Amino acid sequence: NRSASRMRDKTSRLFPRHLWRVAQLSALAMVLAMTVQGALGNGNLPGILFSSGGCMLLLILVFGRLGRYLERYQQDLEASLADTRDLALIALVTDNPVIVTDRAGRITWVNPGFTRMMGYTLDEARGQSPGQLLHGERTDPKTVEWLRVALQKGDPVRGELLNYAKDGREYWWDMQIQPIRDEDGEIRQFIAINAEISQRKRQEEELSQARSFLRTVIDYLPVALFVKDYKDGSDGRYRLWNRKANELFGHDAESAVGRNDFDFFPPEQASFFRAKDLETFRDGQVLDIPVEPID
Questions:
Q1: Which of 142, 151, 280, 293 minimizes the number of CB atoms within 10 Å of its CB?
Q2: What are the DSSP E strand ranges found in the chain?
Q3: Which residue(s) pair with 89 in the sheet?
Q4: By C-alpha distance, which of 220, 221, 243, 239 is closest to 230?
Q5: 89: buried, middle or exposed (CB in 10 Å: 19+, 13-18, 0-12)?
Q6: Model confidence over 58-89: pLDDT tens digits?
Q7: Residue 188: exposed, middle, or buried by beta-carbon count in 10 A (0-12, 13-18, 19+)?
Q8: Greatest CA separation found in the chain?
Q9: In Å, what is the CA distance from 53 to each residue of 25, 31, 50, 60, 287?
């Protein structure tokens, strides 16, 4: 992305910069030529040799520099065109969907990767907004609004959004959208390069469902269950606390999680529990603590 951005900046500034230098040198050459012609036409004999000779020397120098600038401009332009061809080739052959829109958000071009995945040809997509074409029932409206506001500001954005193919299939995209500006800094178009992340999103959803199921099982166990964390200086703070622990200790999960034994018990009891915890960590063995009443 950084190399593409540099190429766009170079291409947008290349022509005006070289054109200005060429115009300056050309104007200087014209002034010098007119000076020589005027000196000869007015019969200014004492100054002819000096003026014409000096001006001709300057003309040679000016046209020499002009030639070098033109040669450099041609080289830079050819390099920029080569970069543009390379990027266009990448967009054509990549399987990632690529969308180009005008400044109003209407599609002007899609790559073959987009057509293969989403089923819409360039003719079908052209003139429509990506939202009209791809959004559906489960597309998150908050994400859509966030993208719209960011693009209206001209900011580059990256986000994840659920889109729909022509046949109704769902595809999650990781979208990177960049504004393309002209030499005056005005936005000409937007380019969106999208990575399909549907499998990752399915795995995340399955993991979330598994965690929710496990938490429900833990909550309804007939025994008190809690988890303490001693890593990274957590000092034995509770990370999990089920319903039976609520009944046993008189604290719900909201008030217990993030606190440790010294927040609930007298110092002597809290120190005892802390010592048993550390003993368990040290020996790596299950430790049975006899049941005792807790004051």
A1: 293
A2: 98-102, 107-110, 157-164, 170-181, 187-196, 226-229, 237-241
A3: none
A4: 239
A5: exposed
A6: 545 555 565 565 566 566 555 544 544 545 55
A7: middle
A8: 124
A9: 19, 15, 5, 11, 105
Q: Which residue has the tokens 């499998």?
A: 199
Contact 273, 265 (CB under 8 A): yes
| CA 167 to chain CA mean position, Å | 29
Contacts of 44 by beta carbon, 8 Å cutoff, 6+ apart: 51
Tell me the C-alpha distance between 237 and 232, whole Å. 11
- Measured distance CA(136)–CA(126) in Å, rounded: 19
User: Other CB atoms closer than 10 Å to residue 238's CB: what's the count?
Assistant: 22
CA distance 38 to 21: 26
Which residue do the tokens 């040290």 mark? 282
Report the Cα 137 to chain-centroid distance in Å. 25
Task: Show the tokens assigned to 106.
Answer: 């209407």
The answer to whether 190 touches 148, Cβ cutoff 8 Å, is no
Distance CA 95, CA 66 (A): 45
The rounded distance, in Å, linking the Cα atoms of 286 and 255 is 27
What is the Cα–Cα distance from 250 to 263, expressed in whole angstroms? 13
Q: Return the residue matching tokens 């399915």.
A: 202
Predicted structure pTM score = 0.59
Residue 141 and residue 135: Cα distance in Å, rounded? Answer: 9
Is residue 177 within 8 Å of 147, Cβ to Cβ?
yes
**How confident is the model over 207-252, as pLDDT tens digits?**
999 999 998 998 889 988 888 888 877 788 998 889 998 888 888 8
